[in-house]
Amino acid sequence: MPTDDANIQGIDRLIHEPARLNIMAHLYVVQSADFLFIQHQTQMTPGNLSAHLSKLEEAGYVEVIKEFIDRKPHTALALTKKGRVAFKEYLKSIKKFVARLPE
Q1: Is residue 28 part of a domain?
Q2: Tens-digit pLDDT profile for the chain (103 aa)?
Q3: What one-character DSSP code corresponds to residue 71?
Q4: H or E, element range at 24
Q5: What predicted TM-score, i.e. pTM, was given to this entire model?
């Protein structure tokens, strides 16, 4: 059974972290999503979600759009093109890794 780092080359460690994987998976299937929606879907606290979003934003994977709607602050989240490509590559790498595992 593969266990060393050489066997999981190509897997993006930033995305692979469970909380960030959860965020990326939710954003992958939509054009954009409201912060509160993602918070509800992932069951993360606002602070925890913000911390993970910051890391994804720093990597250029997620765009955080802050605006006002009817004078109320609103935060929308979306994967960037780079984020979509990275997530597709992540999925390919995971599938390749899993395919090599014995049944």
Answers
A1: yes
A2: 444 444 567 789 999 999 999 999 999 999 999 999 999 999 999 999 999 999 999 999 999 999 999 999 999 999 999 999 999 999 999 998 888 888 8
A3: T
A4: helix 18-28
A5: 0.87
